[in-house]
Design brief:
Elements: H1 3-7, H2 11-17, E1 25-27, E2 31-33, E3 53-55, E4 58-60, E5 71-76, H3 78-81, H4 92-99, E6 105-110, H5 116-126, E7 133-140, H6 142-147, H7 152-155, H8 164-170, H9 183-187, H10 201-226, E8 229-234, H11 238-241, H12 247-259, H13 262-266, H14 272-288, E9 292-295, H15 296-303, H16 319-333
Parallel strand pairs: 5-6, 5-7, 7-8, 8-9
Antiparallel strand pairs: 1-2, 3-4
Helix pairs in contact: 4-16, 10-14, 15-16
């Protein structure tokens, strides 16, 4: 049995329904979202595909919550959705509800593989479902940086999104067929153009930070209109927190590197100097618009011992990891 199946058996549930090869729902405006009305011991979604938060045995979600009281909102991508959690009660939003001394509900507004544009669209399209919102925490930042190396034609005005090549290929105009006297037939196969070189890391950081701040300013305007407090938290990567993980993490990372290409694709992003440069731009921009900013990586570095198991992969947390991060969020934002 693999380390992943032994250490994190819940991941099989996510891979069955909540990955690219699972039951992706293609939707207008958002591009894609989670399966709706999904039921399992690991993950449950409402009629729109939002994951349920759970506290004291009570479930609630964006489409299924008591409208008489106020709520707090945790928005972001797959880490907020809760990839890696063994049950709904162990996601970040659920642990925030359990650990928040104010006793308020935290709704899960996470969208797997979302960039900042999709995170914002998810909120704007579903804001009408919500009761009064007292606070919004955006726990985000990596996906924009990871996607910043995509070709310019994929990034467009609002950032590249995961699987965007499928979208552009599906809607590409048909190419005319070559006639019998074409140069292809006369001289053999035409040479495919070389793919463009990716932007430098500095250019990627600048692009991702500018895009994130552009969307954050819209969040700011919406939060102000709702009378809600807004905080942006730059989500951590395992390599940003410590050079070497605990024994469980190292086993999982090694196995994942054999199966996929995370290190090959994003290894340069794992460098501390990249996080520091990215965080500095986000902090400056957030402060200029009067939005709270938290770089949670140093807080986690200080809180974690060498044997504390935080990650199921380089970006998603264990149950204990979600509980720890929820407490750090509450400490940092209040």
């Amino acid at each position: 049995m693999t380390a992943r199946m032994t250490l994190t058996p819940q991941m099989a549930e996510y891979e069955q329904k909540f990955t690219d090869g699972g039951e992706v729902r293609w939707l207008p405006y958002l591009m894609y979202f989670h399966p709706a009305n999904h039921r399992s011991p690991v993950v449950n979604t409402d009629s729109l595909g939002f994951r349920y938060s759970e506290s004291l045995g009570v479930e609630y979600s964006a489409a299924d919550c008591d409208k008489s009281g106020s709520v707090r909102l945790l928005a972001g991508s797959s880490t907020v959705f809760g990839i890696g959690a063994s049950s709904d009660s162990c996601t970040l939003s659920s642990r925030l509800s359990a650990n928040d001394p104010r006793g308020q509900r935290w709704l899960n507004f996470g969208g797997r593989s979302f960039n900042s544009t999709q995170e914002l669209m998810l909120f704007t399209l579903n804001r009408h479902l919500l009761p009064k919102v007292d606070e919004i925490v955006l726990f985000s930042g990596f996906n924009n940086l990871g996607l910043a190396r995509q070709p310019k034609e994929y990034r467009g005005e609002h950032g590249a999104f995961f699987n965007c090549h499928q979208f552009f290929n599906a809607f590409a105009p048909e190419q005319p067929t070559h006639s019998s006297w074409s140069l292809t037939n006369l001289f053999g196969k035409t040479q495919e153009p070389e793919p463009p070189a990716p932007p430098s890391m500095g250019e990627q950081i600048d692009y991702a930070a500018n895009l994130t701040l552009q969307q954050l300013d819209i969040w700011r305007a919406l939060a102000k209109d709702m009378g809600a407090k807004l905080t942006f938290i730059l989500q951590p990567l395992a390599g940003w927190i410590r050079a070497k993980g605990c024994s469980e993490e190292e086993q999982l990372f090694a196995e994942l590197d054999q199966a996929g290409n995370f290190t090959e694709m994003y290894g340069d992003i794992l460098q501390t100097r990249v996080r520091e440069a990215y965080a500095a731009q986000l902090r400056e921009g957030a402060h200029k618009m009067g939005v709270g900013f938290v770089d949670i990586t140093p807080l986690m570095t200080e809180a974690l011992g060498p044997n504390d198991w935080q990650f199921v992969d380089r970006i998603h947390f264990t149950d204990k990891g979600n509980d720890l991060v929820s407490k750090l969020i509450l400490d940092a934002t209040h």
